[in-house]
Structure formats: C-alpha cells, structure tokens
Amino acid sequence: MRENKIRYLLIIMIFAAIILLAIPTGIWSKKNVQDLQKRHDSRLTPIIMIPGSSASVNRFDALVRTINERTQTNHSLLKVKVMNDGTIQYSGAVKSGDLEPFIVVGFENNRDGYNNIRSQAKMFNRAFRQLKLRYDFNNFRGIGHSNGGLIYTAFLENYYKNDNVKITRLMTIGSPYNFAETRNRPTQMLQDFIKNRKNLPENLIMYSVAGTQNYVADGLVPVSSVEAGKFIYQGQVKHYTQITVTGRLAQHSALPQNTEVLSLIERYILK
Q: From CA 33, how far away is CA 184, in angstroms rounded?
C-alpha cells in the first residue's frame, strides 16, 4: 500500500514538472510565432548602404538629401557605426510611417585591404542582425559604394542566410572586384568571391555601376576591375546588369553625387 502511494506521488510530481516546463516553452513558442508573423506582415523596406574605405557614416548625406529634394519625399536617415569592440552606435532615426528609410552602416575599422574587408563583412553582419530585431523588416535593398560593394559581396557569400529576411536588389557603385589590377590576373579576393558565388541569393537583382573619366578608370578604380563583378554575379543571381556612367562627377569619390547614378537609384532601388 505504501509503495503504491509513493508510486502515485512520483507520477504526480513528474506530471507537475512536465507542466511547469511546458509553460515557459509555450510562452516562448507563442512569442516566436508572433514575432515571425509581425515580420512577415511588415511593409518596411529599408535601403541599407555601406560606404567605402576611409569613409564615415556621413558618406551618403548629400545623396539622401538630393534624392529627397528630387523626389519630394522625406526618407529617414539612420546611421549605424560598428566599433572594433563590437558595440554599435546609432544616430538619426527611422521616422514613423516611413516605409523606405535609408540606413547607413559604417565601421570604426574603415581601412582598405582584403583582410579588413573580411573583418568589415563580419561587423556588418553583427549590425544587420541587430537591425532585423529592431525593425522587423522582411526584405531590404542594398547600396555599396567602392569597397562597400566588396563588403556586401563578402557578407552575402559568408553570412547572409536567405530565410525570413530577403535582399531583393543590390547596387554597387565603383566597386573594385579585382582591386587595382588592370590585367586579366585575378586577385585572391576575386578568386574567393568566384569560389563562393554559389552562396549568393538566386533571386537577387544586381546592378554594378562603373564610372569613367577616360573609358579606362574613374580616377582611382579601373573599369575592368568593376566589370570583374560579372564573374561573381552573372549567371548566379536572377539578373545582373553592368552600367557605365561618364561625364561630370564620374570621378570615383563623386559617384554617389552623380546625377545619372542618382537617377539609377531612383529607378532601380527605390519603389
């Protein structure tokens, strides 16, 4: 008789433990489903921009200001700086009701070189994950100027997971996919990009913009280096388009203010 009581008591304790464990699991599951549903229903489509080497989070101020004037809209401008110790600093804000804000992600380590680009891609991934949690968007579009396009490529190939947040369009501007190499000799970076191209999102629409003052270079980056992007993206993503702009403000550092580049952003990146 006593053994039966002990047995019943043990059964009751086991059921109680199961119930107690199930309650927090159920709460977590419900919250997780709610978060996923909120992200699924989100209408927010941020334009996330990465500046080139030696550039700060202020790099695109003139671009955003000019686009707002030209389109008579008021896109927000949020600036995100990733520090070397992993902390992230925010300035500006995403305004209520703005479905297409500009978000600039820059780095304390903004130096040139392939090792730094790989480090910056890892830093960008850290900021991207935090932005997803903050703003619950389910899709975004990207712009990378100069090395910013290389950072985007390294991010897409090594960190991006095409799951519940999709990059739909990417525009790189004056990005030297083969650095300063002018001959048909791929750098280690280009070789790695080509080797890992299978990780690029297949539904991505990609635009690679080159500037030229003399049909050879934009004053810093050889046109052939920008065109090397085709070996990475063409045939791997949904659409790849190479565009060359010339004339006034076609110099490398001036490309983000080039009127033709601004028109391309309005036509292909903004809704």
A: 51
Nearest by Cα to 52 from 189, 147, 184? 147
pTM: 0.84
Which CATH homologous superfamily contains domain 43-268? Alpha/Beta hydrolase fold, catalytic domain (3.40.50.1820)
Domain residue limits, the chain = 1-41, 43-268
pLDDT at res. 148? 98
For the chain, 271 residues long, the average pLDDT of each consecutive 10-residue run is 61 63 52 42 90 96 96 95 96 95 97 97 97 96 98 98 89 97 91 98 97 82 95 98 88 93 96 81
The contacts of residue 251 (CB under 8 Å, 6+ apart) are 211, 213, 218, 219, 220
**Long-range pairs for 192-199: beta carbons < 8 A, 24 or more residues apart:** 193/153, 193/154, 193/157, 193/231, 193/232, 194/231, 194/232, 196/157, 196/158, 197/157, 197/232, 197/233, 197/236, 198/236, 199/156, 199/157, 199/158, 199/160
**DSSP class of 202:** T
